[in-house]
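ok trying this again, last paste got cut off
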Amino acid sequence: MSSNKHAFTGLILIFLLFSFSISGQTVQDVAVSVNDSTGNVVSGASVVLTGRNILPRTTTTGIDGIARFRDVQATGDLRITVESSGFGTITRDVKAGEAVTNISLAPGGLSESVTVTATRTQITTDETAAPVSVVDREGIERRAVNTIGDIFRTLPGTSTVNEGAFQVRPRIRGLDSNRVLVLIDGERLNNARTSTAMSGVETGLVDTSQIESVEVVRGSGSVLYGTDALAGTINIITRDTPPRRPDGFRFGAILDTFYSSNENGRRGNLAVNGSGNRFAFRVAQSLERYDNYSTGDLEGRPPNLTPGVGPDGEVLNSQSHGGNTQATARIFINDSNALRLNYGRRRAADIGVPTLVGTFNAFFPFSNRDKFNVRFDSAGLTKNFARLSVSGYYQTQFRNFSNILTVPPAPPFFPGIFQFSETATDTKTAGFDVQTDWIIGKRNYLTAGVSFFSDQNSDRRFIELRSTAISPVLSQDRSRSVPDASLTNFAVFAQNEFRLSPRLRFIGGIRIDRFTTAADPTEGFAIPPTFTQAQLEDLGLSGLTSGLNVTNTAVTGDIGAVFSVTENVIVSGRLGRSFRTPNIFERFFTDFGSVGGFVVGNPDLEPESGVNFDTSVKFRSSKLNASATYFNNFYENFLSTVTALDRNGVPITIPRGTQTPIPVSQTRNTASARIQGVELELEIPIKISLGYLTPYGNFSYLRGDDLTAERPLGFISPVRTNAGVRWQNFAKNYFADYSTRIVQRQDRGTQALGFVTHNIGGGYYFRRERFNFNINLGVSNLFDRFYNEHFVFAPARGRSFTVGTSWEIK
């Protein structure tokens, strides 16, 4: 608790130190004129002005298509980023003193998306050596998703695991769970208690209606974000307050609605906001409810239909409901300093695990998240000290996993079993991050800082055994599988960008992490007394029940280059290390496993690590946007649960009198693996008489090999293709879209059937200076195909009609 107090005390001191810093900078006005490719002005476009040593400023174009920024204090070049519904994002540099910058927008989705995740600073996706995909708010609405997890099915190199409106989670380049780092506004959603083998972080804890954009960085992210970023980093950026308005305070409101016919899914979100010269706020409340979903066409289902699916195709135990509250306030101290406060409250309940009914029924009665965070930004501190960002957060994740085992009686020998079990995990996280940006001469841009987080976890478990659901209690058990424990991390990082020439940039970074994982003496947590002292030593468990500390250090680095061959062609390459430190569950879980046998922790585990290589080529023009990426990732010290052996190589067991001994398993660093592949993206805007017709798509090929066992990795989907065509009129009021998703059969290692799905959609956008309205209609799985996502037990959703609306007063 004292470390949390010290962290927030430090934040306050830094805030007081820099809150009134204004360096002597050039003051100028900036005007941006925006039109489309036909020469018509574009009103209502979002224009963001940024620079190395100023805070971002946002405004919109008026009815004349011009956005104006008054009294901009900056030295050096400025950058403007323009976004508007139906257009691709355009980024341009503005030279100091330039009167008006003219921007011409073109349709598209792949062109110059803006990311803050790849380098911790706002740049375009063409300027980073890391492969990045960005899905903005409009893209989320057009995809008509039930949950954020659905987004990842359509991006290159990504797929999903699990089913249901809450349970879908991302997989990047064949890896999932804690091997993918999920951030919310740059802060960790991952926690150290979640099992890697059986679950992973719940992205459903983020309400889709509160998301502004999703940034997916494929490949190593450990240099900037630390542990868990083995396969990639996902940054979920939530909706913020309106931009600063120097000309008076203005109130606004947004109402978003969504309906999906398949599972009778309903979601609604109401937000009220306001902004002025010194203060802005946003308060939002959403509610959602999803019933059981249904699979595809009955005639297409295999004869050995998955247990847990009703005769009419209803996937039992796939329901969920919940709500979200978000309150954000932003204080504009002056042009160089701003403070942001945010509170988010997510409540989800009655979350089923699809198809797990009958003999074994599993569900989450609730899964809740509360988070408070504060962020202070200061820009233009000195000529070289461009920016300081300090953030701190406190987050709780509290969930209950319950299951019911029902074995019917077999008279007269077996009376039957009814066992109810629940495990409540309470994980509290406190953390802070300090980032500094430096301009060193005319060619060097340095980002450096420190970060800290501490996960404190406590479990509560209850198991009750009866012969039937209404019979007297036979036994009750309140023991624990995991002791009260914590994982604490302190890290320093630095990343430097060196511009050798206007066309060639080198980017390199280094990070040093120090981890401490500690188990406390915990009532109810014990190791079976049948283990001998020698066995405890062989397993590394000596002293675990009386308290145990484990420390380890990780050093990571990467280096990359971006070269503009021509104005339209950009090539890049990157080589970096990644890692994931073993968590509380892997080091300390000691109890009967869910698939039989007894599992013991392993405090002596080494971190999983990877060496990741990516190289890309991108082509950008008004008639074609394309990119191709090749990656080759080598991993070692992968964790897996194997038979526990003593020092003589003999399997360790727990004796049971005259019955067969219980086998003991333990998590070990066992394997090395290579995952490599190719990712392609393509978009071709074609101007026709009625508007723009844009074919688009992406293609991913993956190959995974277990180098230790010399066999294929069975959980790698080889070929995935997303393709479609979109039409929109010149005024960008209407659009229609057709897309297909093709997943090839998997025959290397574990076999999985291929499938093809089709989707159609369309919408209408009505835009005025103070009022916006849009409606999106769609049909997913158009032909009601029955299929399973690869390596997912529950079948996927069948056909669903969706409708989403957004009403905004600005």
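PB: full thing came through this time. The chain has five helices and 45 strands.
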